[in-house]
Amino acid sequence: MLAADGTPLKASLARALRRQKLRALMLIAPLLLFVVLTFIAPIVDMLWRSIENQLVPETLPRTVEALKDWNPKSGEVPGEAVFAALAADLQIAVKAKTHTRVASRLNYEQPGIASLFRQSGRKVKRLEEGNYREQFLDMHDGWGSIAVWSTIKRFSGDYTAGYFLNAVDMENTGDGAQFKSEDQQIYLFLFGRTFLLSVTITFTCLLLGYPLAWLLATLPVRTSNLLMILVLLPFWTSLLVRTSAWIVLLQQEGVINDTLVTIGILDDNNRLQMMFNQTGTIIAMTHILLPFMILPLYSVMKTIPPSYVRAAKSLGATDWTAFWRVYFPQSVPGIGAGAILVFIVAIGYYITPELVGGTDGIFISNRIAYHISSSLNWGLGAALGVILLGVVLIFYWTYDKIVGIDNVKLG
Amino acid sequence: MADGTGNRAFVEFDRVQKSYDGETLVVKDLNLSIGKGEFLTMLGPSGSGKTTCLMMLAGFETATHGDIKLDGIAINNIPPHKRGIGMVFQNYALFPHMTVGENLAFPLEVRKMSKVETEQKVQRALDMVQMGAFSGRRPAQLSGGQQQRIALARALVFDAELVLMDEPLGALDKQLREHMQYEIKHIHENLGITVVYVTHDQSEALTMSDRIAVFNDGVIQQLAPPPDLYERPDNAFVAQFIGENNKLNGKVIAVDGGTATVELPGDIKVNAHAVNCGGAGQNTMLSIRPERVLLGPDATSNAMEGHVVELIYLGDHIRCRMEVAGNDDFIVKVANSHEHAALKVGERTPLGWVTEDCRALDAV
Ligand SMILES: Nc1ncnc2c1ncn2[C@@H]1O[C@H](COP(=O)(O)OP(=O)(O)O)[C@@H](O)[C@H]1O
Ligand SMILES: [Mg+2]
User: Fold this and answer.
1) B341: pLDDT confidence band, cut at 50, 70 and 90?
2) How close is the Cα of B83 to the center of ligand 2, in Å?
3) Are B192 and B185 in contact (CB under 8 A)?
4) Residue B20: domain span
5) Looking at residue B2, what is its pLDDT?
6) pLDDT reported for residue B335
7) Which residues are B310's β-sheet partners?
8) B264/B326 same-domain check
9) Which helix (H) or strand (E) holds A109?
10) Residue A354: which residues within 8 A CB-CB, separation 6 or more?
11) In what order do the strands lie in the sheet with B219-224?
C-alpha cells in the first residue's frame, strides 16, 4: 500500500507516529530511569550473585590451574605443584587481605575451611622455599583432607550451581547432586510452609472479604463510601503500628488473654498462645492483606446488576439458589483476582512474620533477609530469592492462562 | 376480554402507597384492578412511579401502605420466588454465564421438574419466539432483539399466568421495536396470559394495550382503552401526553349542560365540550387535536382568525403552524387536497372546530 506521495503507507504512518511516541517516552523517562536503577538493576544483580563464583578463581588463580590435573577419586592429596601454587596465591592474598573472603565463601560449602585458611594465612609468611606440601601438612591437618581439596576444585569455576543446590537442600559431593541428610534440610520445608500459610491467609481473606465486598457493592452510595473508608483505613496506617497492635492484643499477657481470664473462660496458667507462632502470622497478615481481597471483589461485584438476582428470584429461585447459581459464578473473576493478589503479596511477605511469627511462623523471605544481613551469604540469599521470584512468576502465568490477568482491577 | 369492571379482578392494587425515603410518596393511593387475560400498560413519563408499582407487584419492593392482591389473595408477605410471576427486565437480565438453554431451564430446575419435561418445555418456549436453533449460544453471542426474545421466552417457560414487562423494548431500534410489539401482542393473545406492561412510549402503549393507565407523579391520571385516551382525555396532562395536542388557555364564562362557553385572549368567545373545567370564572385549558381543526370555508362554528406562521410539507398532509388566540404554536394538519393547497405563510385564514371536538379541561 502506498501513500499519496508514493512512499509505503507503513513508513509514512510510522513517521507520523514517531513524534507522538517520542513525547510519550519523554513523559515516562524519569519513572523509567528510576525503575531501572532501583528495581531492575538490583534484580539482575541478584540473579547474577546467585550463580557467580569469581572470588575463588580470582584469589587462587595458580592453585585452581594446578588442581586441574588432580583427580579427587585417586584418594590422594594433591602433589607438590599444587601446594607450591597455593603458597604463591596465599602470600599474595594475605597481603591483599582477600584470603578471609575466600575462606568464608568456601566455608558455606565445607564447614571448617574458614579456620583452615585463617590459621594458615597467619603462618604463610614464614614458609620456606621448597617442599611446600610437607610444610602445609605440618601447618594444619586440614590440608591433608581430600574433602577440602575437592571442595576447592569444585568451586574453582567462574560460575556455580552450589547456591541453588543449597537453596533446595541439595549438595554436590563429587558424584552428582543429591539431597542432604534429613536433619540438614530446611529450605524445602520453609518453602512448603510459606506456600501453605499463604494459601491459608488467602482463604481467610476470602472468607472475611467476600461478604464485606458484597455489602459494599449493594449498599447505597453514602453508606458504602463510609464502609470503604474503613476498609482502606489499614492502608493508611503504618504496617508496624498495625502489627504491634496485634501483638498487644494477642500476646499471652495481652488484651484478649487478660479478658478471657478475667471473665473466667480461661485459666490463668492456660493462656492461649496466639502470638509468635503460625496463628499470629495468619491473624496479622489476614488483617493486613484483607483490602487486597476486598477491592478487586468489590470492583467486580459492582458491575453485577441487581436485576440478575431479581430475575433469578422471579423465576422461582430461593435466596440461596439465586446467590449460588447466579451471583456467585459472576463474582468468580473477582475471587480469582483477589486471591492471586493476596497470595502473591503474602508469599513474599517479610515484616509481619518477622515480628509476630516466632520460629514456626516465619516465611522464606525471613530466611533470605537473614542471609543478606546476618550470615552475609548473599549468594544463597540471592538463589532463594530467585526461586521465590520464579514461583511467583509461575503462579502469575498460570493465573493469566486460566483466568486472564485483565480481570485484576483495583477499585 | 376482561376489562377490570365485570369479572373479578386478577390483580388488584388496593389503596397502595409507596415511599422510599419516608418523606415523599412515589406512589400515591393507587387503586387498580386488572382482569384475567388483560394486557394493561402503565404509561407515564420517567420517574412517575411505574417501575415501583411493577416491583411491588413482583415482590422486590414492599408497599408502604395498602394491599396488593393476586387472584383474590393478598401477596404482601409472599416472597418473590413464591409468587410465580414471570418478569421481563429492561436490560433482559439473561444470566451471562449460562447458555440460552440453561437460562430457560433455570426456572424449571428450581421447580424440580424432570429432565425430559424440562427439555420439552424449553424447546417449546424457544420455538414460540422463533429461537429454536439458539439453545447452545451464550446471551453475549446474541443480538439485542434475540436477547429480548429469549428474555420473553424465559418469563413464559414456567407457565406463569401473569407476566410483567418493564420497558422490554427500550433498547431496540425503532423497526425491531415495532416488530416485537406485534409479536408480544400475538403471544399474549395465543397464551391468554395477563400482562402488565410498563413503557414511556405512548405509541407502543396505544398499539399493544387493552387498557392504559396513564401515570404522572405517582397517580393514575386516566385509565381507559387506547381510543378513549386519545379521543376523550380526562385532564390536561393526558391530553398533552397522549398524541399531539393544541392547547388554548382561557376563562370559563358559562357552563350549560355539557357545553362550556370560554373566553380566549383577544375577546374571542368559543364553545367547547365541558369535561373538567369547573364553573364560570375558572381558568381552563381547551384541548383540540390538530386533525380536528377546520380551516377556511369549513370553519363554520366557533370561528376565529388564524395567522399562518410556518408550513411543513409532509406528502399526504401539510403541517401548518399558526398563531391563534395568543398561542403561536397552534398546529393544524391540513389534508393535501385541492381546496387546501393554497395556504401561504403570513396569510390570515378563518379557523374553527366542532364543539364536541374541543374539550375544556383543567388549567395547568
Ligand atoms: N430504590 C429507590 N430508592 C429511592 N428512590 C427510588 C428508588 N427507585 C425509584 N426511586 C424514585 O422513585 C420515583 C419513581 O421511580 P420509578 O418507579 O423508577 O419511575 P419510572 O419507572 O416511572 O420511571 C423516582 O423519583 C425515583 O427517583
Ligand atoms: Mg422505570
Assistant:
1) low
2) 21
3) no
4) 11-236
5) 41
6) 85
7) B321
8) yes
9) helix A99-109
10) A362, A366, A369
11) B86-88, B162-166, B194-199, B39-43, B211-216, B219-224
User: Please, which residues 60-119 of chain B have a Cβ atom closer than 8 Å to chain A?
Assistant: 60, 79-87, 89-91, 93, 95-97, 106-107, 110-111
Q: Element (H or E) spanning B131, and its range?
A: none
CATH topology classification for A187-407: MetI-like fold (1.10.3720)
Q: Is the pLDDT of residue A306 over 70?
A: yes
Q: Domain boundary residue among B178, B212, B236?
A: B236
Examine the fold and report which residue of B236, B260, B282 is the final residue of a domain before the chain moves on.
B236
Would you say A362 and A353 are in contact if contact means Cβ atoms under 8 Å apart? yes
Beta carbons of A329 and B97 less than 8 Å apart: yes
Residue B2 covered by a domain = no
pLDDT band (50, 70, 90) for residue B1:
very low
Ligand 1 mean position, distance from CA B26 (Å): 7
Place of cell 509514512: A12
pTM attached to this predicted model: 0.81
β-sheet bridge partners, residue A172: A177
Q: How many domains does chain B divide into?
A: 2
B37 touches A293 (CB < 8 A): no
All three cell numbers of A179, joined, read 539431597
ipTM above 0.90 for this complex: no
Say yes or no: B211 and B228 in one domain. yes
| Residues paired with residue A285 on neighbouring β-strands, in sequence order | none
> Which numbered atom of ligand 1 lies nearest the CA of B50?
22
Burial zone of A277 (CB within 10 Å; 0-12 exposed, 13-18 middle, 19+ buried): middle
